[in-house]
Amino acid sequence: MLDLQNIDPVLAFNLMKELKQLFAVILTIGELEAMLDLQNIDPVLAFNLMKELKQLFAVIIEEVIDTFTSGDLEDIFTSFDITLGASIPIPRREIEFFEFSYSQTLGGILEIRFTASGDGYFELSIPVSVSLLTMKTQAGLQPRVGASVNGGLSIGRFIYGELELRAQILYAEFPTVAELSFAKFPLDVGIRMDMKLIPIELYLYAKLTVDTFLFGKKTLLSVRLWQYSAPAEEENVFDIHTKDPDKSPPQFVEATTSGSRKRSTGGISVPGSTRKCKVEQVPGFDYTEPAFQLEIAASDDKSQVTFTYSVGTVPGGRDVVDEEEFAGSPSIIARKLKGGVPLYFTVTAHNSAGGTATVTCVLPTYDLTVPTGRIEPAFSTTSHPSILTASAVVYDDSEIISQQEGVGFGGGIWGDQIVPWTDVDKVMTNPGSGGSALDQFTTARTGRLATTPLTTSPQHTAEGCAQACLDVSAQKCLSFNFDYPESICEILTVIEGHDIFLHKAGFYQHYERLGIGHAIEFKHNSVYLVHNNLYYYNLQLLNYIGYKNIITSVPILADFTPPVPGPLANVKSEDFRHEACTAYTHPKWHQHCVSETPLPNSRVIIDGPGSMAVFNGDKDLVDMLYTRSNTFIAGTSVFICL
Length: 642
Fold this sequence. Notes:
Radius of gyration: 45 Å
Number of strands: 37
Strand content: 35-45%
Structural class: mainly beta
Largest sheet: 8 strands, antiparallel
Number of domains: 4
Shape: elongated
């Protein structure tokens, strides 16, 4: 093995001198071109060499890649390469041309000195390097020559004030580099020589020195007063390469990486062939630090290919990302983009000769939010000890792959004491084929959805309005408003959400159609509820990106007792009984009699003088009339006879 640290400088200098003479005397430019003719190299040998070097590179950076993909480090650079290099220095050689000194004593005290000198120098370094990623090897010679002239004037005795002018004359460099690029076949071999010449550089210094017999001359202070440098002249002497010029742009081919998730473009028209470019949001990243995978394939028969991408909200646009470089296909790029709108990616392939080719693909949406939505209980209080009903609508930019429902005493992951977390049956998102028209809609919600209706028509009942909605296509009727006193039916093309809200307006009730989007209805017929407890519906959502969220309903109060009257006195009789909802409501309101309680829901009291138990009348609590109050919570009532 060659020990470069302990090389004999004299031997190295003589060797370089002989090599210079060899190139100067034996080889001409034409002979150099002939020597670099590698067109007949064995292609199998070259292919195996490139394959082994790539494998070596993969082993070296494996740990680095693992560190970066684990998220422990940030992406602190845009390009990456590993270069192994060394430089062999040849010691500097100096030659003295002349040296002159003259001194004169003034008045026997001060001494004036004039000095002048001239010298030249030569130095050489031999750099070598191997770049593993770009697959390139370089070796060269870097000779440097120059001459300098110095002049000085000093005055003093023992302590001198001095002015010194230094001139660097004809500084010249002749860097010569031989390069072998083995990234593609045929191999590219070249040799290049440049020249850098600086005609003159001037420096003026002021110094304070001490000159004694014991210590000699010492500089106490040195200040540069002025300098000048003539413009450097740089010129290429020759540049010889065996590689043929590349006159054709790169060619895109169909991207075929396996395991890529197919994702619909939602009817978006994209110019060009998107089969040559694929982009998708990468699952598993946090929604605050999303990432996308860009997959393309391009080739060039003569040049290396590099890639840049731009992102816009229109085909070919750059309003989101403007021409950024990426490593190649497939590439996972962690960065935030604009969410909620289609994003158009324009990928440009560049070859070494400056040729370019572009291809466009689309990402229907870039999801930056967790799944969300709302849960609407069918009632805020319940008098039934074993039935709970609610409906839900989910909003998300991405496909929902998991929906789990739980019912408990609170919200969040622990809210599943009554109904453990259970996967929501996909069938629940579709309405049944039997029953009434209202069975195909969620339970009525108080209020009117503030939007422009598709149609407005008179209907005697909510059932008739529901049937009118079903007579329209599912894309045209997603919900309806119904005003009970005025019997007005409004067919709507939207549901609540996305800046459209429900507002209380008169006696309007709002219904949403089941089976549209992510509309779901839950009904539990065998739960065990306890009087005076609060219960919450929870819906756990997971989309295919991996974003997870839990939405929680408002609380539902379990109330199994009739209303408590005022103070009673001289009670003659008191009776608790069960009565059907339809027995004491108008037929127009019978559709609201749902999930009736089997418990005693009415309290019949016959009291006497001194009682304060009447809930309505001209004088509250003291009216001497029979009353039947059925407007209290939970569908229970009280009857009082005086």
